[in-house]
What does this fold into?
Amino acid sequence: MTSTYCGIVFDLDGTLIDSAPVVADVLNAMRQQQSKDALGIDCYRSWSSEGGAVLVGNALDITPKDAEQYVPEFRRRYFALPTPIDSIYPGVIEMLGAFKSRNIRLAICSNKPENLCRKVLNEVNLDSYFDVVVGGDTLIKRKPDPLPLMHAINQIEINSNQILYVGDSLVDQNTARSAEIDFAFFAGGYDPKITLGPNDISFSTHDLFVLDLISQGKVNG
It folds into this structure.
């Protein structure tokens, strides 16, 4: 684990924002068109780390392969819906402001398509905090392959041993491990069942997370 972080890369959904209510609205409307009952938001939260085809497939009770034909329609409808400002988890704005005031370079590395990442960040007024946004379609590979995370790190021009990756899922943890990057786990996200490694950080409140890093000398105070 590094002595001081100069750059921090974040997952988006389940880490900085809770997109599940909007996803539920979209996919439950698609279920309704197929005469299926609505599903609860917790279902969508548990599926959101698995990628679009798995998410849509689970929602429509079909295989991921069969769901691929519905993914573009899901994303079109998702893009058309605004992201509520209260989608941001409590403490996120304070955390990001504290990092930026200390000249920490910030980036997004998500499996959500890049245009949707940028749309969401813009609608909740978080876009100005991030120097780089890498989505699931930015490169030819996606998480848990390390390539997207390493691409984000290269773009913010910080040595990889001074980077922390923050996420909420096993996919995020495996991405960090594959890239040999320190990992911080947000326990209030979509995948609370992961097993932490000996050097992993865990937190449940964003504003306290940044204060803990400062008090431990992990970022500039």
Notes: Residues 168 and 186 are 5 Å apart (CA to CA). The mean pLDDT is 95.
